[in-house]
Amino acid sequence: MNNLKENLHNVRARVEQACKTAGRNPSGVTILAVSKKHPASRIRQLCGYGQAAFGENYVQEALGKQVQLADLPIEWHFIGPLQSNKTREVAAHFAWVQSVERPKTLRRLSEQRPAELPALNVCIQVNIDREPQKAGVMPEEAGELALLAANQPNIRLRGLMTIPRIAGEDHDPTDSYRRMHQLYRQLQEAGIGMDTLSMGMSGDLEQAILQGSTMVRVGTDLLGPRPDDAAVA
Fold first, then answer.
1. pLDDT tens string 36-48
2. DSSP secondary structure letter of residue 69
3. DSSP class of residue 107?
4. 4-232: what CATH class?
5. I want to staple 159 with a disulfide (CB 3.0 to 4.6 A). Which of 73, 77, 145, 194 is the partner?
6. Distance in angstroms (rounded) separating the CA atoms of residues 213 and 40
7. Between the CA of residue 70 and those of 62, 73, 80, what are the distances in Å?
8. Which of helix, strand or coil describes residue 147?
9. Integer angstrom CA distances of residue 79 from 13, 190, 217
10. pLDDT tens digit sequence for 76-134
11. Residue 198: which of 137, 122, 129 has the closest Cα?
């Protein structure tokens, strides 16, 4: 799992095969490398093999890596829980925020996005399985927040993101992904412009793609097991 070139080749092959099965063009699915807890050196190496989009969960950790990798054409996505006191830094240093779940956060990102930067790409995080411990708006609230995002200055609404309930004997995430795609299409049909459905990870990206995902977030299968916190510093 530590051969980054081979890992990227394997993940791309899985995406291509899933798209073939679904009758879709692989160019319609973006691979987002989830690089939290991994050192900047590995991100640099993976970027050298052609991976451009990287997702981070922790603001301070990400900002440190961005300084070290400022010479690379990386598209940075923030995909973790976003506290109000971190919105200014995220608005200034990321191209995407995929974890918006509150109007207050959305408005702060809009107000704090530097004028010289392009509009901030935003996804609304949906708690599709209504898990009390998990972030995200309830499915029936997603449309209202998406509409608010679509009308904020300095914000470009891109779509929806979800982290479904973990697969088990009593749950198949394929159904979660099916319901997410249904919600995504409903909002599009209601006139809310979106082009991104971010769902699927290392273990289930095939199911997500078969259900319409346009972006899969892959960590372990690209960068290997996460090192200890101390190893990242």
1. 999 999 999 999 9
2. T
3. H
4. alpha beta
5. 194
6. 28
7. 12, 8, 21
8. helix
9. 24, 26, 9
10. 999 999 999 999 999 999 999 999 999 999 999 999 999 999 999 999 999 999 998 89
11. 122
